[in-house]
TrEMBL record:
<feature type="region of interest" description="Disordered">
    <location>
        <begin position="129"/>
        <end position="150"/>
    </location>
</feature>
<feature type="domain" description="Protein CR006 P-loop">
    <location>
        <begin position="10"/>
        <end position="706"/>
    </location>
</feature>
<dbReference type="InterPro" id="IPR027417">
    <property type="entry name" value="P-loop_NTPase"/>
</dbReference>
<dbReference type="InterPro" id="IPR026866">
    <property type="entry name" value="CR006_AAA"/>
</dbReference>
<protein>
    <recommendedName>
        <fullName>Protein CR006 P-loop domain-containing protein</fullName>
    </recommendedName>
</protein>
<dbReference type="Pfam" id="PF13166">
    <property type="entry name" value="AAA_13"/>
</dbReference>
Length: 737
């Protein structure tokens, strides 16, 4: 049994409710509350304990419920209360299909059939064994599939980790699709794998220019040198000039500068003609011409250059860069060899200039030039390969990636027998399917046996009995049709059921379910939330009769009833008062009031006005008075409903009217406000307040502060009190004063 509501936090309108009014729950517990006070929300807490799960939309809420003989139940560790049954709007939605006019059958235990019971036991035991075998096969298939997929995933990951795939993927499914085509020639050596990986990783690059190595053509120069060396020039001997080259060069230049002059430009002395003739003879024209030819040849040799233009190594694909720098290192020796030839030729010519009278033999073969042909070919072979690859980069890269994939897939086929694993998996799955087929057939047999052991017709009869008790007539009944109960009216499927009929059917079905085999030999804990439709109070006494008959102290472990219907509340309270504590007896019933204040509700003791009187009218008047005089207690939503209820009751017994306004005719001004100033204006204000702003038609008012709403209430209440005091003074003195 439930003992107490220890706490409710952030569960709908219950923000921080603590204990049920400080009173424990007993066997019989009655809650009264107005619309939107939280009655259904409270029932959802109990239904959560019935189902073992928090209802949708209340995941952030929490609660803790104490029990008499067990540990408390919390929303954090919620557990099913097996004998708890809750009737509320959620139950109706879940169990009764009004669109199809049907409900699920109720199985009520019928007479015993030993043979069928034995067969049922044997079949159910066989089902358990086959389910165990099926589960083992399914698990084996799953384990084998996981093992295989793990390996396939690992292959894909190995390729992915090479960072060669770009935006594409290589997963288990990709590997699996390639297993069948894997052959031995797909295997790569480490060197091949490395080279292909480099290719696959390489980014697209531009083509590289060809290598250029040019050794100048020296044929013309060789011929000129040979001619110069074979030419000799004789001259007179001037010992001092022969001995001093610098002096000789200086004199030769001086003759040229002083040509045509009689005075030396250097020393300003007269030039001796005889000495000048001697010097001119020494520096003859043939001598000068040969000297100039030697100088020109030296200049030509110096002008010749070894030319080389080699692309940077980094311009090539990585795998083509190997050895390229080594080839580059061979260029400089060629350059040095050519420079050595040049230097030898220059030295040879310089020596000739010193000995122009001598005839010197010359052979070009003594001065071999370097040959760059072979080296140039080596360079351009790699450059050509690079350029061809650059023009076909995407194709080569794709081929490299595919080759790498095939290599890893082939390697996997050597490490693991995938075809056998696939066969094993299929064998396990086929075995599980066959076992499931057997289980399905056996379950069908179980259903047949249970259908014979459990009389669904008896369940339908019990449901119809409860419907007759509810309605007091047999307009609607249920019939078992095609595995379900159909609602029938005059032998036709019942459609367009009223709210009252729907509530009646759902409640009767709930009561019938309490006879279900699941509760055999167990007293249930029952929670009823508003078993009376708010729009149909014609069957209150019938419903109470069902409750008293089916849910009395001998039939339930504990009973909870919540309602907003005051007439029903009074009838239940009167019945439960029989179980109140009497002298020498233990108290067995308890009453509570679900009290909403603003945006939150709490569970209070039942007010004395409701506990000790059977009139809701007086209680509502007291609540309006409290709201007028104490704005902090003003509930914008509740007080509007209270005002309307008060006026409905007053109009009913005072004027025998059920409508405040009908077909455009106002009944407020000529009756309630008779003889009151500005009756029509006040009648419109009162009608709008009651009709347009009550029963949550303007829920946004509930979001306003009491200080904003209370003046409206005070003005309306003043209109009502003034009118009743003026036109019905005895009634005013009894209730309103």
């Amino acid at each position: 049994m439930f003992k107490n509501i220890k706490s409710i936090k952030n569960f709908g309108v219950f923000k921080g409710a603590k204990t049920n009014a400080g009173q424990p729950f007993y066997q019989f517990n009655l809650f009264y509350g107005f619309n939107y006070s939280g009655k259904t929300t409270l029932s959802r807490i109990f239904r959560a304990m019935q189902l073992g799960e928090i209802p949708e939309g209340f995941e952030t809420g929490s609660f803790e419920i104490d029990q008499y003989e067990s540990t408390s139940i919390t929303s954090n560790e919620i557990k099913k209360v097996e004998n708890l049954r809750v009737f509320n709007s959620d139950y109706i939605t879940k169990n009764v299909n009004f669109d199809e006019s049907s409900v699920n059958p109720v199985l009520i235990v019928g007479e015993r059939n030993i043979d069928l019971e034995n067969e049922l036991q044997e079949v159910e035991s066989a089902i358990l064994a086959k389910e165990h075998e099926r589960d083992n096969n399914s698990q084996s298939a799953t384990d084998k599939e996981k093992e295989r997929n793990k390996r396939l995933t690992a292959v894909g990951r190995n390729v992915t980790d090479l960072n060669i795939l770009g935006r594409s993927t290589f997963n288990a499914a990709s590997v699996n699709s390639m297993l069948g085509s894997a052959i031995a020639k797909h295997k790569l050596t480490p060197e091949q794998l490395g080279a292909l990986t480099d290719t696959a990783k390489a980014t697209a690059v531009a083509s590289a220019p060809k290598a250029v190595i040019t050794v100048p053509d020296m044929t013309t120069i060789f011929n000129e040198i040979e001619d110069i060396l074979s030419t000799s020039v004789t001259q007179i001997t001037i010992a001092e000039l022969d001995a001093d080259k610098k002096l000789r060069d200086w004199v030769e230049e001086g003759i040229e500068r002083n040509e045509g002059h009689t005075t030396c430009k250097f020393c300003q002395s007269p030039i001796n003609p005889a000495r000048l003739d001697e010097l001119n003879t020494y520096f003859s024209k043939a001598y000068k011409d040969l000297s100039q030819r030697i100088d020109s040849a030296i200049a030509s040799v110096k002008a010749k250059s070894f030319i080389s233009s080699i692309p940077k190594t980094s311009q090539l694909y990585p795998d083509l860069q190997t050895g390229f720098d080594n080839l580059r290192n061979e260029v400089e020796p060629l350059n040095e060899s050519f420079d050595a030839v040049k230097l030898s030729l220059i030295d040879l010519l310089a020596d000739k200039k010193e000995h122009m009278a001598e005839d010197v033999l010359f052979s070009a073969s003594d001065y071999p030039l370097p040959d760059a042909t072979e080296l140039l070919e080596k360079f351009n072979v790699q450059i050509k390969a690079h350029n061809e690859r650059a023009s076909n980069h995407s194709t080569e890269q794709r081929q490299a990636i595919e080759a790498i994939k095939r290599h890893y897939v082939y390697q996997e086929t050597q490490d693991y027998d995938h075809p056998k694993a696939a066969k094993d998996i299929k064998a396990f799955q086929d075995a599980a399917k066959l076992l499931q087929a057997d289980i399905t057939a056996m379950n069908t047999r179980v259903d047949v046996i249970k259908a014979e052991l459990n009389n669904t017709k008896q369940g339908a009869q019990s449901l119809n009995d409860n419907l007759r008790q509810y309605f007091g007539k047999t307009d609607i009944e249920v019939k078992p049709i095609a595995g379900t109960y159909k609602f029938m009216r005059e032998e036709r499927e019942a459609k367009h059921l009223s709210d009252g009929e729907r509530t009646a059917i759902a409640f009767a079905y709930f009561i019938t379910q309490l006879e279900d085999e699941a509760l055999k030999d167990v007293k249930p804990i029952v929670y009823l939330d508003d078993p009376i439709c708010s729009l149909d109070s014609n069957h209150i006494y019938n419903v109470l009769g069902i409750i008293k008959s089916k849910l009395n102290h001998d039939s339930v472990e504990q009973l909870f009833i919540s309602t907003h219907n005051f007439e029903f509340f009074n009838l239940v309270k009167m019945w439960m008062s029989y179980y109140r504590a009497k002298e020498g007896n233990q108290k067995r019933s308890q009453y509570f009031f679900i009290n909403r204040k603003g945006d939150h509700s709490q569970i209070d003791p039942l007010p004395d006005l409701l506990k000790n009187h059977r009139s809701e009218y007086a209680y509502l008047i007291s609540k309006i008075k409290e709201a007028v005089t104490q704005p902090q207690n003003c509930d914008a939503i509740a007080v509007q409903s209270y005002v309307r209820k008060i006026m409905e009751v007053y109009f009913s017994f005072r004027f025998n009217l059920t409508d405040f306004r009908k077909q455009g005719t106002d009944h407020i001004a000529p009756n309630l406000l008779k003889g009151i100033d500005d009756a029509e204006v006040k009648a419109n204000a009162l009608y709008e307040y009651m009709n347009e702003k009550c029963h949550a038609k303007s829920m946004e008012l509930g979001m306003q502060l009491p200080e904003a709403v209370q003046p409206q209430l005070a003005a309306i209440w003043d209109i009502i009190c003034t009118a009743i005091e003026t036109n019905d003074k005895p009634h005013y003195d009894a209730y309103f004063a």
